[in-house]
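MODEL INPUT / OUTPUT PAIR
PAIR INDEX: 1
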Amino acid sequence: MAGGLGTSEHFTSLEPKVFVEEILGFERNDYKLRNVCRIVQVPNLQATVRLATRGSVDEKVKELEEPNLKRADYSTVSFSLWKNVGEVAFSDEARKRVAEDLMRLEIEDTARDLARAENSQIASALEAGGTTSAGHDWGGSNNPAEDILPKIADMYNLDLGYDPQDILMHPLVYADLITNDDVMKEVTHTQVMQTGRITSVYGLNVVIDINLTNTLAIILDRNAPACLLGLGGTSAARWRNEPAGYDAYIIRQWLQPLVPRANAVQILTGVHA
């Protein structure tokens, strides 16, 4: 495998920039919860962001009338990013003993673990920052629509007029949803058998992630925004430990998820027993 990832020649010559690109390329497929966040670039790792809390638009202004002068109200959120760190290391012996593409395997595993760390941190922020109300066990005879549809209506009726797009859940909650008799009346068995998925329910995109608590479901408006994800960039470094006989890379990602509007994140508890 001369010249391939995992060979001694390639490992010691792989530039950190290329290493970062490899990691980010594999990571992209594992981001589950980033898509429900609004991304905020925070290159200096600390920042304060303003969010409008009241509109400044006059409606149906008549001809030759001057609109009222309004000022938008703002709330602020402050970022202080932390870093997640992954490492990839190969001993001289490991590179000589095996012919597999070890470098690529290590890159894939590191990308997966960094993405999982981000997913876990977003899940924790959403669960800690949202508004909680009691639901019912979807694994029993309860109809999930009786929990979900009133909550959607409540979000529409709030002052800011939230428009929820997503429902997030743990795989165990999803298993209850997909086998619920009332839900199955609304979808075709063929769709479930062929794809193994219900991609939407009651107009909401279904997002499944193992890092969410397995007894709740989260309905949110990503445009509110429900969650801000501050990103401070990704960097990597390469080094050789000659006495110990190994080559290594370290990759660092700076980030922080914040929930600025609790009402835009509605949490239904008790939906899985």
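PAIR INDEX: 2
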Amino acid sequence: MKFEGIRVGDKVLIEIKLQVGWGSAEHFWCLQDVEKITSKQFQVNGSKYRKEDGRKIDSSSYGSFAKQIGDKCGGFRSSETMEDQTGAYILRKKEIILISKAKQMLSEIKIEYDQKNIGEIYLMVEKLANEVNKPNQ
């Protein structure tokens, strides 16, 4: 049994789906706490998983599993091992929120421009983009 010795408070990797656009998502494996256990199941984030193999017990979650750090990835990444992607998930989520807010703000701006000042507007936007994309120091 894969999760035989699991206890409340242990951490397992759970796949979290992050919507990034209309009908598209990115998936991250994030460490989550085990909340409850029974003789055959354990619960994480309100969802139940089988101790035997980590499969999620839910009719709407075909193929969902709990994993452990070091487990082999599946499919085309079968030579790789599972790792915590919580940090990458948090950064990507913040990035999506910022992009969404920036798009909203840009859509609300009414800019009067003509052939004379379009270059200046472009340079301002380029400068802003460079500031946003600058690596943290």
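PAIR 2 NOTE: Residues 11-84 form one domain.
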